[in-house]
Amino acid sequence: xxxxxxxxxxxxxxxxxxxxxxxxxxxxxxxxxxxxxxxxxxxxxxxxxxxxxxxxxxxxxxxxxxxxxxxxxxxxxxxxxxxxxxxxxxxxxxxxxxxxxxxxxxxxxxxxxxxxxxxxxxxxxxxxxxxxxxxxxxxxxxxxxxxxxxxxxxxxxxxxxxxxxxxxxxxxxxxxxxxxxxxxxxxxxxxxxxxxxxxxxxxxxxxxxxxxxxxxxxxxxxxxxxxxxxxxxxxxxxxxxxxxxxxxxxxxxxxxxxxxxxxxxxxxxxxxxxxxxxxxxxxxxxxxxxxxxxxxxxxxxxxxxxxxxxxxxxxxxxxxx
Length: 321
Fold this sequence. Notes:
- The protein is mostly beta strands.
- The chain is 8% helix and 42% strand.
- The relative contact order is 0.17.
């Protein structure tokens, strides 16, 4: 085993401990176990006091691992400031991203809120990050509604950063011709870029796009649509993928077709992103519970062992040994 895997995610629970930072780990990408007994590894104390839709990366500039998430708690806020309205959340929800940093994946900074964009953005959903090796910087991308189209169909926006402290002015990364799109996840394979997104509205499905450049333009891949044709519409979102040691790709789609804790990721496997053909593979994967909207980071076997042996410090809300 040359590599292992860390899944940073949240849990769909009615109590606030679900919308915090949770870790899952795997030696092979197929069999997953919870870290810290399934309890949160990190807690939110600012903003909405909860976070969802995590991504994780390693920053070359600072030498630190970075976790970002949507600053949003439904368990606290849905009945309160959002008045049980997803439309209210989309317009006035998360205006910042929650961010944590660590040098070793065990000891983490306190949560800080990162402002991206301006007052013309609606809720900033589901951040994700890809490294641009040509420019030596990171592209942070996310989905938002915007005043430019009357807070109608959501689009994918991006901003560049080297250190996750300063960010460029947001620009549009992708808009669907007639649907809203959310939950972008971008990967590079053999010099081409592939973006998974969820297409909203009637008959909503996840789609796969391809581009020669990280910032587009992106075109839809029909082969992926064909491989997903048998899936029920309107109950899968939050695509997350990882490349295994043997070169295959595992794609995870977040199933939300049942209430509460019955939700979680469903796995698919493909030989390549370029082929676009993913095969569902439930029987080959095991999860301790329903992982929700996260990102997978490739780690070393040594890091896997240290994460498995670590524990959360209940007083500080940080994860250590």
